[in-house]
Amino acid sequence: MRTTTGPAPRQIRRLREIVTIFVRYGFADVVGRLRLASYLTLGRRLLFPGRGLEGEEGTLTSPHRLRLALQDLGPTFIKFGQALSLRADILAPEYVAELARLQDEVPPLGAGQAEAAIEAELGAPLKHFFTRFDQVPLAAASIAQVHRAALVGGEEVAVKVRRPDIAAIIESDLAILGQIARLAERYLSDAELYRPSGLVEEFARSIRRELDLAREGRTIDRFRQNFAADPTVRLPKVYWSHTTSGVLTLEYMPGIKVSDAMSAGPGFDPPL
């Protein structure tokens, strides 16, 4: 007998969360058109199609509300919004500008979590690889965070470690995004102009590449080799004995953000 399976309970809970947040930020009409109102809790359904916004929040523009909704939905949706901000060919300028403001900064992992993740990836206690490991990260983002450390040989390094379980979370969200894209193509008359499923597939390929830190290391190595003869360009060495798909260990190179250098003005000339 042929059977069909629907979304897993965890995906149903996540889809309910997504739908609720979009209604909260005033997109109840879109939720209704996508036939997703059934995922709302009973209380929300009784209020549907109320906009969910009152007072000052109710005066926010649609692009602003969309940014806030994506920010609340976490890493996958933040990065999807950032990807959409590059698509001025399909989005109005006000949406492009607002989505470009999405921030990919999150609180760092709790005490010991980064160390445990590195040990799981490298297959041995941290002390086998590092004589010093700074617990406070240099930076923390949604997919990974970076710690300064020293190898047993004395080399100063930056260790990028992927957040535990982030790959599974992103894969689950990608499946839901794909489902929403298919509903858009089915129920929204103008959706075919934007090819939602194609956008999600392109984004999925991009973020899966970002999850693979070893791939990032190979890219750095390739650029390092390509610019080896150029004294004005320097890229960090990759320590492959301390690198996996979930951990990337690089030569530590202090510097400043490109955005900070640009804002410093035309007279700024940092040492190489």
Morphology: globular
* Estimated radius of gyration: 22 Å
Largest sheet: number of strands, sense, barrel closure:
5 strands, antiparallel
Fraction of helical residues: 40-55%
The mean pLDDT is 88
SSE order: HHHHHHHEEEEHHHEH
Number of domains: 2
* Low-pLDDT ranges: none
Number of strands: 5
Head-to-tail CA distance between termini: 69 Å
Would you tell me the structural class of the helices and strands?
Answer: alpha+beta
How many helices does DSSP assign? 11
Strand content: 5-15%
Can you describe what's shown?
There is one protein chain. By secondary structure, the chain is an alpha+beta fold. The protein folds into 2 domains: 9-104 and 167-209, no CATH class; 113-165 and 213-263, Phosphorylase Kinase, domain 1 (2-Layer Sandwich), CATH 3.30.200.20. 46% of the residues lie in helices and 10% in strands. It has helices at 9-24, 28-33, 42-47, 62-73, 75-84, 93-99, 113-122, 166-187, 196-211, 213-226, 258-263, and strands at residues 130-133, 139-140, 144-151, 156-162, 247-251. Strands 1, 2, 3, 4 and 5 form a 5-stranded antiparallel β-sheet that branches. Helix 1 (9-24) runs antiparallel to helix 4, helix 4 (62-73) packs antiparallel against helix 5 (75-84) and helix 8 runs antiparallel to helix 9.
